[in-house]
Amino acid sequence: MPDGLPRKKTWRSIGLARLAAIDRLLMEGVEVGPACKQRAINKVLREVPGVTRGDCWQRIRHVRKITKRENRPLAAPGGVALEEKTRHGTRSWRPWTQEDDDRLLTWAGYEPVERIAQRLSRSGRAVRFRLCALGMSARVTDGWSLRALRKLLRVSPAKLRQFIGSGMLRVRDPRITARSLAALCQRNGTSLDRAAVERIAALKATRKGAYTWERAAEILGVDPKQVQTWISAGQLKVKDTFVTDRSFEEFCKKYGFGTNLPLIDRATRKWLIEEYGVAPAQADGEKVSRAQKHALVVRTCKCGRTIAGNVYFRHLKTCKIATSQPLRTRLREFSALV
Question: pTM for the whole thing?
């Protein structure tokens, strides 16, 4: 978007009163935290057609400018490249255009700085400086931990490891840690080649923390598919298991059928369909098996925690508030639930 005309038309077409309400919603979400910020932006995207995430971030930056009364130029006058005098001579760089800012605001918070810099053909240092100038953080905060995904999708940790090992679910840093390679060598040292054991022993001197899947396969002397099998089994661990919101959206669109969608409540399924593109046939086409019907029962403990399935009874044994009640009362409640 080379100029600001399309964006101005988009915001002016909704009316001043509604625009003021949107500004309050966005700024309140930013002040509370990343989760509320994400919900506020999603709500604006649902209610205002034609608005993108980059438009929302641009609006947040505009409101911040008005509040703080700061005016920062986006580029040099006339689009001429800026220059800086250094000890080694004069160095020039490309100015940031409106289109670059739009793409940066769209990806910031969802993609790592290195990936954004690669897409924009810039250095990571330049991307960080530009984000700082725009009043934004370079940290990826919008996403999901594996524990949150287990609760949301109602799947086991082993199932999530299979998604990661097969490449269906992309994590933030899929490189294999050197510590897990050494642990695998200790457990399966007899099944590995002697040369592979020596290579793993020599890795300790390099002090490198992680390796790609292809490099790990070369070190172990095995096929890359075997490395994926070890990742799925939990014998090899990736460096960062955090799943960005964009990666989760891609997973839902392509492989949403691999999760236990019939066990998810209707409100959450509807949200997954509308926000992340899960096919409605995938969410409603399967029937719950007889062995999984207990997972549809949701119980609330005396401590206020809501638990689905038979895991509730395991929690009941260790809950301090529940165990503080008389034994007869707990047995009566247990028999009533069963």
Answer: 0.52
